[in-house]
Amino acid sequence: MAFRTWAKLVGTAFGAAALVGAGQLGLAYGLGVLNFSRVVEVTARDAWTAELAWVSWFALTAAAAGGLAARPRLTPRAGAGTRLIGGIAAGLGAATIVPLTMQPARSAQVAGVNEVFVIGACAVLGAAAGIFAAWAALGRNAARWSLLTLSAVAWLLAIVSVAPSLRSGEPGSPVRLGVLDAGFVPDDLAERASLFVMPAVALICGVVVGLIARRRQLSIVAIALAGLPGPALLTLAYLIAGPGSTRAQEMPYWGAMTAAGAGVLGSVLAAVLGRGPATARPEKPAPAEPTPDRPPLPQRDAQPESAIAKAATKSGPGLPPVATGRATVAARATVAARAAVAAQRPDDELRPSDTGVITMPPFDGFTPQQPPSPAPKQGHPDGEISDWVSGLGR
Question: pTM for the complete prediction?
């Protein structure tokens, strides 16, 4: 990845996480979900524990939001290492809520607790765990759907819980994460329901997200794990905050511990139940059979290598050896085919077309030719020449 691409990825993840974390804290302060100015007695320390769960969850969701925002910055070749870098940047951006929580915690009065240190530690742990949430959001579509769905439902429950106090203008009771604590719900019913609200919400969201992933024709493993990321943030937030000391906080704590499993169960049900050929992955098309009007072309029967070698090594006049050395593939095939045909004929019936070699009669050597006899001389006869020579002597 180029430097500019890295800078865009890291900057987007960091900035989006910091913005979402600060925005959630501001909304929580405004709605009264978080109130660090109250005096918490030893007998009512679960209210402080409930606020710690909210702070941890804000850090987790802020880091996940950084991963969601940085997803378009990834290149198609980005691997797990690149996504991890983006997740770390998102976690660092989510850690910016640490001073935004520690400063208001100075006015809190909790018996036997160092308020500033405890709330800062919860925010840091939430941001560190949020790295893995951002990594999942950067890599999987189903993880993004689960994170968005559960975050929206958790905020919806919180808004419904504080709505009566906003209407009356009176300070309301502490609102627990993932629990319906509205004033119109009886206390006994709210306490019993706090054990089942988060698992039920996780199960329903897991089924919905699993069906969406199944409709997108994702793999069976991706569909089965589609309901895990969102409920896992609720589980981690309550693990960081602790179970509390009374049933008011212990019930939602154990409900959060089962939320992750309920989300996976919902997505597994969506992946397994009612799965038919219409929702299965399309298979590769089978090769088309030849039509009757165009029958397939006949293929020549390939001669086994043993027959070709036998034909190539058979002794007899006119059989060429198999091409070796630098002969081309076409020449080898031609020679082998001719040799195979020749092997099926008797030696006395071999044809030049079978072997490509024209037989010649045996060579007996050259016959020396006699030089031509000289032609008789034209001119004087022998008698006349003798007389002429004797006349000169006289």
Answer: 0.68
